[in-house]
Amino acid sequence: QVQLVESGGGLVQAGGSLRLSCAASGRILSINAMRWYRQAPGKQRELVAGITSGGSINYGDSVKGRFTISRDNAKNTVYLQMNSLKPEDTAVYYCNAVVFTGWRTSDYWGQGTQVTVSS
């Protein structure tokens, strides 16, 4: 089994910064993509940013230029540096990882961490 544990959420004023972390543990042979999604109340879950094991990165349009995704492959950890936060960034942020456990590749999700940006 694989577990993803997120940390770093909280309450911040508009214009501020937060850094999210997500550590994967368990039966992991390799991790392909690691991604951050978010879901605001009444809205669909949307992709925030993703990074592959090779370092290819993509961002959602609404966060380009403000958020930076990175990963530490040795620690099976992905980070999301969020700068210039806006009230519309308020959401529950979820970590996702595509993990090869030795016999199959599956998607795993964290429990989510709340980010609230006050105006």
How does this structure look, described?
With 119 residues, the protein is mostly beta strands. It has no helices and 11 strands. 0% of the residues lie in helices and 60% in strands. Strands 2, 4, 5, 6, 9, 10 and 11 form a 7-stranded mixed sheet that branches. Strands 1-3-8-7 form a 4-stranded antiparallel sheet, with no helix packed on it.
In short:
The protein has no helices and 11 strands.
What distinguishing features does this structure have?
mainly beta, seven-stranded mixed β-sheet, 0% helix, 119 residues, 11 strands
Query: Structural class, from secondary structure content?
Result: mainly beta
Number of DSSP-assigned strands: 11
End-to-end gap:
40 Å
Arithmetic mean pLDDT: 96
Total number of helical segments? 0
Which range best describes the helical content: under 10%, 10-25%, 25-40%, 40-55%, 55-70% or over 70%? under 10%
Low-confidence stretches: none
Order of helices and strands: EEEEEEEEEEE
Question: Topology of this structure?
Answer:
Layout: E1 2-7, E2 10-13, E3 18-26, E4 30-39, E5 46-51, E6 57-59, E7 67-72, E8 77-82, E9 91-100, E10 105-109, E11 113-118
Parallel strand pairs: 2-11
Antiparallel strand pairs: 1-3, 3-8, 4-5, 4-9, 5-6, 7-8, 9-10, 9-11
